[in-house]
Design brief:
The chain is an alpha+beta fold and 138 residues long. It has a single domain (3-135), classed as Yope Regulator, Chain: A (2-Layer Sandwich), CATH 3.30.1460.10. It has three helices and six strands. A hairpin with a 2-residue loop joins strand 5 and strand 6 (98-106). Helix 1 (3-18) crosses helix 3 (111-132). This is YjfI family protein. It holds the Pfam family DUF2170. InterPro entries: DUF2170.
Amino acid sequence: MTEFQTQIQAATRIVQTVYGLSVEWQPIPGEVEVVQACIGGREELPIYLTQSGEQTLCICYLWHDDEIEPSRRTELLEAMLDLNIPMPLSAFARVEGYFVVFGALARQSRPEDLAQELAALSENALEALEAFADYLKQ
């Protein structure tokens, strides 16, 4: 088990204990170490964690570009910009055509900090889907 996976396991115990959320995680095979974390009841919004340089990145995919109602695209983008600052510990971005919500912390962050990031990012992803549902194709 890598140091990163050990940190994630410790964070998982904290998420379960402090935030009352169940978490299942699994490594994703590939050249870069990536771990997928699924929060119980939110399996459709897995969080992908990886380390890059001095950061730990946490990303949750929300929807693909082609799922946006074309006539409401500009309105959606403006709403996302408006929500970016009041959304604690997370921000919006686009990765290869997918809209995501993400957070980053120092690579050496404590498991408690990673646990807080996981819980906040999962909650923010849910809130983003609710807030922006009207902008997506039905």
